[in-house]
Amino acid sequence: MIDAFNIYDKMEKNNILLSFKGDITSELLTSILQIMENKLDNMQEEPKIKKKVYNVLVECLQNLYHHMDDATDHNGDKNRSAIFMIGKNNTAYNIITGNYILNENIHGLKQRLDEVNSLSKEELKDYYKQVLNNGEMSLKGGGGLGMIDIARKTGEKLEYNFLEIDNKVSFFTLVIKVTQLQLQA
User: Is the pTM of this model over 0.90?
Assistant: First the structure.
């Protein structure tokens, strides 16, 4: 039997404002954004902080929707299931996404994340302009600006992990911190 109170208690202790696990659709993303917009409106936060959290949230969810791989499970079924959570502690909002990724795509994604994490604020600005102006599109139709934009908006390094599921797929986790102290500066 599932211990619902234990799940509730863990979510409460970690100040989880919203969590979701399941198939990601455009309709779901619209609903999540509406829910979070309402939650943020009801919180005692400065408008600047609410706007920054919301904008980063939009970017994270768009990346999750547009860039997750179709992973085939052991039954041969396509799996577009993912997780999303947003929590708040005394100093930051934490946005966590997780999705399946084909192992063959890990190297390229890791390289892009590490490159973004290696850049200073000014270098990120220049890199953003460079990628914007080069006009190249990824296989999934994006220009590669999402992670750069998140790093620019938060001023934080992107935390990530790849957990190998089998020889074909891994589970990719991304943790984004939107610190309140940095926002107020």
Answer: no
